Amino acid sequence: MAETRVERRVVTALFVDVVGSTALTVALGPERLKRALDRAFGELAAIIAAEGGTVEKYVGDAIHALFGAPIAHADDPQRALRAARGCVRWTERHEQDRVAFRVRIAAETGEAIVDLGAVEGARHQMSVGACVNVAARLQQLAEPGQILIGPVCHDATTDVGEFADLGDVELRGLGPMRAWRLTGLASRRVGRIPLVGREAELGLLALAARRARARRAVFALVSGPPGQGKTRLVEEFVDGLSAEAHVLRARCRPAGELGAHSPLQEILASAAGTVAGDDVAVVEDLTDSVARLFDDATERERVVTAVAHSAGLSVSRELASLPSGQRQDEVANAWRRYLAALARTRPVVLWIDDLHWADAEVVQLLDRLTLGLDLPLLVVGTARPEFATQGGMRPGGDRFFVALDALDEAASHELANAAGGAGMPGLERAGGNPLFIVELARARSRGAVEVPLTLQGVIGGRLDELPPSGRELLQRAAVVGETFTVHDAALLADRDPEEVAATLDRLAELLYVDEVAGGFRFHHALVRDVACSRLTTATRMRLHARYAGEGLPQHDIEAVAHHLWEALGPADADWVWEGSPDLAALQARACVVHQAAARRYANRFAYARALETCRRAFRFTKDPLAIAAIEHALGEVLLASGDADEAWSHFMRARDIYREQGADPPPDLYPTALESPVYTSGMFRRCPDEPVVEELAREGEALARRIGDSASLARLLALRAYRLHDAAALEEALRLSEELPDPTALEPFLVHAAILQIRAGDFPVARRIFQRLDALAAPPAPTADRPFEFRAILALSTGRLSEAQHLAERLVAQSAARGPHLRSHAYREQAHVLLARGDWPALRDVAGQTERLVAEHPDTAFCYAVTTARAFAAVAHAMGGQSDEARAALRRAVEPLQAEPLERESVLLLAHAVLGGLDEVEALIREVRAHRGQVFWFFQRMEVVALTMLQRWDAVEVALAPLEHIAAKGSPYLEALVAAVREEVAAKRDGGRPAKHRMLRNLGYTGWSELLAYPYRAG
């Protein structure tokens, strides 16, 4: 019995109907007719076989033949037409015979499921596919002596066939379809390549290299369709640079594919001479390399942390807690510093293949690294043509776009000659595609005389030259991806690893695959695509499922998710797995794995991929509780991506589903959902209403207490403390954090609680939180960057000016290793200290540094830290008698930024007041009082000072009361400021003695003293 070996193939179905036999039955009798038919069928079958076709079966008076199975040829459609013409000529040669038959023929090309084992058996039902049905129906419409051709076969043979267009014809059971009648054929022949004809493109890349050597970061994109020679061109170019540049190589692959490490990780592995995938080794080598490149310990730590985080080698809680824009800023800054250090001795070249597969975040990083940066860096990427317009790279003088067009006729012939195809005709069929020409040459070297139709056809023909065992091995290995190991291939082929290794070595010699570190890679992506496409849908899906379960390390969660999706996600999975006892378990696992993979993608900022992966999880379940878990995960991913409004809707949907099912939501759903509206409400377009937040907070606390989830309860208590200034809640949260096995997860929440206590004026509570945060770091790293900026504000707010100055200076020093956004925060803290001291020249210098930072980083979304620097610059210029400069600074300060703040109005109050802008000050006060739910003391302070400067004494009295209440909580500075204002009121309104502000000046806050006295001193 024949072996069943079913594959998906592109075939051309040919039907040859022998006509005239009914009349001949009467004339000759059945026995003579039977003998004549047998002879006719034998001769017609021989004509078909001579062209490489296989007779599948005889149906009455018709022959059904296939071209493309069991052996495929790149020119199977042409072969079918030649066979058809041969059959017509056979009847013409026998027209004078007494027993003469005529034929009517039809052919169509398309995808079919083919049982290759049936070739050795009865050949019954060897193929199933639409092309078979179309050919059969067309043959019924043909007249004797005619050959009718379907649309796909026609498109595949337009340059070798001559046709008469029949328009749309009605096919029984199939409807109308366009058809053609074959009227004639022409013959063609073939050829092959190395790298020629790319002199201009090499010249552009050489120019890019010269620009990089002149210390300008440059991005060069080499684009073109598959097989156009992108990688070959860059290889030639990079070979000429290897002696003078530090070349690091990476390649991007589709999501979840084995070996699809982040290209950033591959760059680091290339720099270290290690293999991507060994995370520990890569991080160790990165740490050692950075230690040699940087003297400053803080800078070393920041570079390693941000670079490793962006490459998916580790997760930094500090970076993960930042808004997405600031995270991107920090990552870009770290990579700039790392690459600049590598480039001290010679330029750095980053060679990244297949950028069309890259995450958007990687492309954005490359864009930022190569736009307007003074750095001897050349990034060379290869990509398919669509990337040039869809990749998001911004144009600029340091951008080189090298589009690889088809080779011209002369270059094509030169390459073909060099490849052993001298003088071969039909080379134009290659369309100037170098890989196509290479494959054509290989076909010719094996004796092929006809031009293969397409590149896929060439590769298919080459695959069929292999023994079935080798071909099947490649097809099954292709399920893994472009790169695979011996173990992978052996697992999916159910063969002995030693035998598989030997087979792969032979396939490498034949250039089907290339040997790479740790395994093998298909010689070209298209080889892999064609090999994989030949597997039947059911076989391919089951192999993906097997590989997800047995072939992958389970911690490689993204790859597991990818293969489970390929096994269960497509619509065909419904019938492939129907009735399978494994389906329920596979779907349940896929649902969980996709959520975990989505979170992993989000951790490394691949948000678009994270969202797609998370949404795919819905495909695997109808269970409401599982759907609620997916909604929860989707909310987390959306929140990480910065879409707080959409995240909130998914959190609420998850909660509602749990409750509808009579189940408790996971306790951590509540703090995860509530932290964004409470801590970072500015992320919302429409922040959830306070009553809703309050209801959820109470609900979450009750649930966490009832089931004993201390971690969620501590987070919720921290939220309550932040919202309501509830010291008892904060104390309980701190106590719970001490009982948790891993309390470090509370760190960002406690930081926010401390910030709120500072803003609300609860300075002792804020100080205790910082002490607790110090205790959470056990032991603190010598270069640990705790939140110095808020500690500096706390010190400044409580009269410890020297400590505030020390912390601000330390923050500025450490910010040198940070991105521009966070660097602006350091300048803001320094500006506050300098204003308090009254060091107006230094304050103007800091404002100038901030402006330069903004100008140098136009792609960074800055916040109110820049507004503060600009407003304080107006103050400093005014205090120095530079009114024009002050007004110019104020005009810049009032311009809204992309990430505006809480403190914006307060610093603008002071800037308007110092320039005598009474109307502007009163308008700002009205706006804040009307629209802010809570007014913090720092606004009240600026309000009191501005009104004092503008002599609005009645308003000063009203505004002083809440500030006096805050001062009583333990702030010598605020006590001194209130006393100084009282002195001003007594002196200027009531005619008392001149104000001295001794308390304020004794603390060192000379700047505030001068501001309070400024209008009268100036007058």
Describe the structure.
By secondary structure, the protein is of the alpha/beta class. It has 7 domains: 180 residues, Alpha-Beta Plaits, CATH 3.30.70.1230; 164 residues, 3-Layer(aba) Sandwich (Rossmann fold); 72 residues, no CATH class; 68 residues, Winged helix-like DNA-binding domain superfamily/Winged helix DNA-binding domain (Arc Repressor Mutant, subunit A); 122 residues, no CATH class; 115 residues, Tetratricopeptide repeat domain (Serine Threonine Protein Phosphatase 5, Tetratricopeptide repeat), CATH 1.25.40.10; 105 residues, no CATH class. Helix content is 58%, strand content 11%. It is built from 47 helices and 16 strands. Strands 1, 2, 3, 4, 5, 6, 7 and 8 form an 8-stranded mixed beta sheet that branches. Strands 10-11-12-9-13 form a 5-stranded parallel beta sheet, with helices on both faces. Strands 14-16-15 form a 3-stranded antiparallel beta sheet. A hairpin with a 3-residue loop joins strand 7 and strand 8. Helix 18 packs across helix 21, helix 29 packs parallel to helix 31 and helix 43 packs parallel to helix 45. The termini are far apart. About 2% of the residues have low confidence.
